[in-house]
Amino acid sequence: MSPDTETPPGLEALANHLGYTFVKKDTSSSTSSNAGDLAAEPGNPETSSTEDQGAEKESSENDVPPGSLTSSANIYRGSPEDSWTAKEPEDTEPAEGKDTISHAVVLRQQKSKDSRKGYEIHSIVIQSQVLKTALAEILDGYPGVYCNLDRLVFKAPFAPFIHRWGAIRKYLENDKLEEVTRDHMKLLRDILQKECAETIKALEDYVDHGVVTYEHAWTIFQPDSVVLSSIGLGEQIAFRLKSASYQETDEGNFFNVKCQSVDWNGKSFGWSSESVKLPEFEGIQPISELRILPLAFHPKKEQLKHALIERGKRFAALSGYHYRGYDGPAIERTDDGNILVQNKGRIIIDTDSFCKQPYQCKVYTVPLKSKVKAKVTTHDDGDQVDDYDCDDDPYWDPPTERNTALSAKEKSDPEPVKLSDYQYMLCTPILRGYSLTVKKWLSFYIDHVQPIKWNTEAFDNLVLPAAQKKLVLALSKSQAATANHFDDVIAGKGKGMILLLSGPPGVGKTLTAEAVSENMKVPLYMLSAGDLGTRPDDVEYNLNNILEIVAKWKAILLIDECDVFLEARSVHDLSRNRLVSIFLRLLEYYKGTLFLTTNRVDNMDAAFQSRIHVHMKYADLTSKSRRRVWSSFVGRMPSHLNASDLDELAEVPLNGRQIKNLVKTAQLLALEDQKSLTKEHVDMVLAIEKGFEDEQDD
């Protein structure tokens, strides 16, 4: 076949399909008579072409395991929309591939927005397996970092490395490291020292001097470290830091710190999420003066840590429901937000019941071992603590609701709760419950909770016949002890004890219920008919809610001035008839002790008469009983009133409430004169009262 003869059709395509290379030969220099020969398979050393040998050499270089070379490679892009390239010029082909796969670390360089700079580092890709293993140990527990990924990428400004810079240095001090691990770690360290030199130097300088700038605030807030803030009127609270970020809003810029505290949701302990905002500030600020700061920077951190742990133990001991005293500010939730109110008196600590009330915030928590995020609430208002490892905390099984009485033993010796010191330190200082003084559901600060100072003389000072006092106390105590022993024909009915106290004002009806509760050391829940509302639906809801929680607290319930419910029903007032029916029906299922007071019993509904277990009638005070009342009130303060003065005052026709108010007013006059109470002070108030009564008569 001559040189000009064309290749037979399809021969070249067939050769390529079979894996051979079709080679056209020059017949003028070849002894072959064929127009073309089929070369041997690529890779055969005897027959491979020069091009095949070059390809083989390139293939052997790429057989190096990924990330095994102790070196780094740079790749670039002009903007976030561009692809990464291996060359700085405008080359848009993807760069992470055969040219970079063997390097331990790949540095991604991106065009800087700063016109004075060319490229700046965007991120670091870790390809070395030994480096991933080392970082898994160094960054253990760091949120959002998973070193076992095939593609491990860290973006600038490399917060995990900055926060664990000390751990990186310490890791390299280990003499037992394998050579390849040490070399790869040194490579990464050197890269970070070069790229983050300014940040690392600034952090070390800030730590040494206890100051920071707003731009570098992120460097001192390490995830999972303990941070400190304050709420309310300066109550300090410790959190576990989860994450932090800079945010820009129309209202201003701030550094948002998301963190967690240990809280009680009424059923179990768990993590409650908070978000604390650090507003943008100019210049350099002392870290100790920031709205939120790492506990490690507090000047008295060890002393504070101990105080927080002790407070946390008290918080845990007050889980469930408890009867306590309180004196200080409390938080009330209103339509306009939370406000601080002063509260002094008895309170019931009960988060479970608090969360069930309308218009109150629920306490959202996740179990102490859970990784699920809790709902976040916001209030605008370093070294990691290595002594405590939250990952080693024992799982706290949620306790069941305790249905025991608020006995004196439980108050003085609460059931211990097993939390770790780390968890105690992070307990919130906020308790939730009910104020018996202002009759509102409030949030209380634990440092203002006090033991109850019982009035042991209240029952002795009660001006009642001895037999009557003995009866009412015996009935109340027996009811508390045997409430579940007696039942009606219908299950759940008839387990309560209802006592009706009737008589004129100021003769001791309300005081009787108060004295009984003090003697039994149980709460007294007081309300009037007006507290229940006027609409039948409101009355039913409110009364049912009150009866439920009073029974739960084993409290004594006092409904004062309940004439509207006791009066006989008529065919002319259907709305009031419905109120009475609701009241009667709910009382049937009440399990506790109920005191009803009224000034009128002449027109009592017959259905009520059959439901009252004891009816105690109070008469106007006699001169003898009035003298006991005078003696009781005057004896509580310094005075110059003698026996004859008390005898004279006892003849004045006053009821017990009038005597109490008169003594209080006279005492204020005595304090103004800087003297002890005298008969002249009392006479002065009596004269004013008499003049007012004369004007009323006219």
UniProtKB/TrEMBL annotation:
Region of interest (Disordered), ranges: 25-109
SMART domains xref list: AAA
Record's compositionally biased regions (Basic and acidic residues): 84-101
Pfam families: AAA, DUF7025
InterPro entries linked: AAA+_ATPase, ATPase_AAA_core, DUF7025, P-loop_NTPase
GO terms for MF: ATP binding; ATP hydrolysis activity
Domain AAA+ ATPase per the UniProt entry, residue ranges: 495-620
Lineage top rank: taxon: Eukaryota
Protein name: AAA+ ATPase domain-containing protein
